[in-house]
């Protein structure tokens, strides 16, 4: 197996275990999502690829969506978003977004209206129809609904928190969402600039949607 293919396998395995399966694999994961690298390397799934610490660091550094973060002491690694593990504390791993500190969201200084800042959720046509039928944009099996921001879409690049295969783009006005008492403390920003909402979102908050070519 070539190094590039091996790295892809290691990256996918990191995502699966750090986001969803750490406890199932018997690995200790803290409330910030960190797992000790040496423990990961002792896991049979990583052993099957003869993974070493240098591999972990390289995969982390080269990931184009910046999915992973290594601790300052170099001993731990975590996924920066995308978790389904309920033990992860949003307030410890993410930065909370409120009406008072909207300046932390990407491209806030480019906003032309004080009342609108659109966040975008990509989905399939089938899933969009389900969203409309149920009346909610749901977290599904994750702890948050994932969004990107408008300028990311326009730049046509690899986007964190967004499937490039998405056919429907759902636009929600972040400022309107934060003005609702039910969501004022439910919105967060990850290290790799994914906007996260920790509650299912009623479709009344959908401003509009677009078909993605």
TrEMBL record:
Q: Which InterPro entries match?
A: Ptrans_KptA/Tpt1, RNA_2'-PTrans_C, RNA_2'-PTrans_N
For this UniProt entry, the molecular function terms from Gene Ontology, in alphabetical order, are:
tRNA 2'-phosphotransferase activity
Which terms does the UniProt entry file under GO BP? tRNA splicing, via endonucleolytic cleavage and ligation
Entry keywords, A to Z: NAD, Transferase
Instruction: List the catalysed reactions.
Output: 2'-phospho-[ligated tRNA] + NAD(+) = mature tRNA + ADP-alpha-D-ribose 1'',2''-cyclic phosphate + nicotinamide
**E.C. no:** 2.7.1.160
The family note in this entry says: Belongs to the KptA/TPT1 family.
UniProt cross-references to PANTHER family, sorted A to Z = PUTATIVE PHOSPHOTRANSFERASE, TRNA 2'-PHOSPHOTRANSFERASE 1
Q: What does this protein do?
A: Catalyzes the last step of tRNA splicing, the transfer of the splice junction 2'-phosphate from ligated tRNA to NAD to produce ADP-ribose 1''-2'' cyclic phosphate.
UniProt-recorded name of the protein: 2'-phosphotransferase
Instruction: Please spell out the taxonomic lineage of the organism that makes this protein.
Output: Eukaryota, Fungi, Dikarya, Ascomycota, Saccharomycotina
């Amino acid at each position: 197996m070539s190094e590039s293919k091996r790295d892809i396998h290691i990256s996918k395995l990191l995502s699966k275990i750090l986001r969803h399966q750490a406890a199932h694999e018997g690995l200790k994961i803290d409330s910030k999502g960190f797992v000790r690298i040496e423990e990961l390397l002792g896991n049979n799934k990583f052993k099957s690829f003869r993974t070493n610490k240098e591999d972990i660091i390289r995969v982390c550094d080269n990931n184009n969506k910046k999915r992973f973060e290594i601790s300052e002491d170099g001993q731990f690694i975590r996924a920066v978003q995308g978790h389904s593990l309920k033990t992860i504390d949003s307030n410890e791993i993410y930065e909370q977004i409120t009406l008072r500190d909207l300046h932390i969201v990407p491209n806030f200084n480019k906003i032309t209206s004080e009342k609108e800042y659109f966040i975008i959720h990509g989905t399939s046509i089938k899933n969009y129809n389900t969203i409309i039928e149920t009346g909610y944009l749901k977290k599904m099996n994750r702890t948050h609904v994932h969004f990107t921001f408008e300028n990311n879409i326009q730049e046509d690049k690899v986007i964190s928190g967004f499937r490039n295969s998405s056919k429907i783009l759902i636009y929600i006005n972040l400022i309107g969402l934060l003005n609702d008492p039910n969501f004022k403390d439910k919105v967060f920003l990850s290290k790799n600039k994914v906007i996260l909402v920790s509650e299912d979102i009623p479709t009344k908050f959908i401003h509009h949607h677009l078909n993605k070519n």
